[in-house]
Write a structure and sequence with these properties.
Keywords: Allosteric enzyme, Carbohydrate metabolism, Hydrolase. The protein has seven helices and ten strands. It is an alpha/beta fold. The chain binds fructose -6-phosphate (F6R).
Length: 244
């Protein structure tokens, strides 16, 4: 694991944006498959990439994207659906073709089959070239909660109480947070060719320490990234504060 500690959350976002810019530029017209996370961690990175698109001509015209996860049961147009979140926060503001920004179908009548279909679609597209990740305060990546199989594929998961409470800040009340999600599995995420995880703030410090310095264990799902050959973890000083 490459660990990069930035002075501020803004510096961390710029560093992650640099990785995206390098990869997108190097791929050129051959195109690149991006793996996109939602939640608050990547938002500053997305803002910086939008700025570079508008002011510096960074183009995503040859990129396509797969989201990590989606709530089960939220309509796509709900402002907290990840389908909508990624468009509002990122992809509607760059020149990526919207039809190539794919996410699990949280409204499918058969969510289990939809999850398997999504896993297949990622494979058939040739896999993810560059995946951005956040980390949950309990060490989840995607929505692979503690005790998830380290080899898991895209499937339906039930969120822990802690994750529901963490995510309640995006909803009017905690009771509105869906408890079921479709998430790429840890095995699926691990097939991405390059991974950049961004974590900022004291609230992530414990999970970051477990991910980087703890044993590889399903109790900290992000620790599986220790097994991946090309992972960069970008932290601000607060998120790095519990590293030895
Ligand atoms: C989001 C996702 C989650 C978040 C994690 C951190 O697509 O898969 O793993 O990255 O819950 O969320 P924030 O960034 O809101 O603290």
């Amino acid at each position: 694991m490459e660990i990069v500690i930035a002075a501020t959350p803004e510096d961390a976002a710029r560093l992650v944006a640099d990785r995206f810019e390098q990869a997108v530029t190097a791929a050129g017209e051959d195109g690149i498959t991006l793996g996109l996370a939602t939640g608050s961690s990547p938002v500053a990175t997305y803002r910086e990439l939008i700025r570079r698109h508008r002011e510096e001509g960074l183009s995503f015209a040859h990129a396509r994207a797969f989201l990590l996860d989606e709530y089960v049961g939220l309509p796509r147009e709900h402002e907290q659906s990840y389908f909508r979140f990624i468009r509002d926060q990122f992809t509607a503001h760059i020149d990526i073709d919207d039809a190539t920004v794919l996410s699990p179908d949280g409204q499918a009548s058969d969510p289990l089959a939809a999850a398997q279909e999504y896993d297949r679609a990622i494979r058939e597209a040739g896999g993810v070239d560059l995946q951005i990740l956040g980390i949950g305060s309990n060490g989840h990546i995607g929505f692979n909660e503690p005790a998830s199989s380290l080899a898991s594929r895209t499937r339906v998961k039930t969120l822990t109480r802690r994750t529901v409470e963490d995510n309640a800040r995006f909803f009017e009340t905690v009771d509105e947070v869906p408890v079921h999600v479709i998430t790429q599995g840890l095995g699926t995420i691990g097939e991405a060719r390059r991974i950049v995880l961004i974590a900022t703030g004291e609230g992530k410090a414990e999970a970051v320490a477990a991910m980087v310095e703890g044993p590889v264990s399903a109790f900290c799902p992000a620790s599986v990234l220790q097994m991946h050959p090309t992972v960069t973890v970008v932290l601000d000083e607060a998120a790095a504060s519990r590293l030895r």
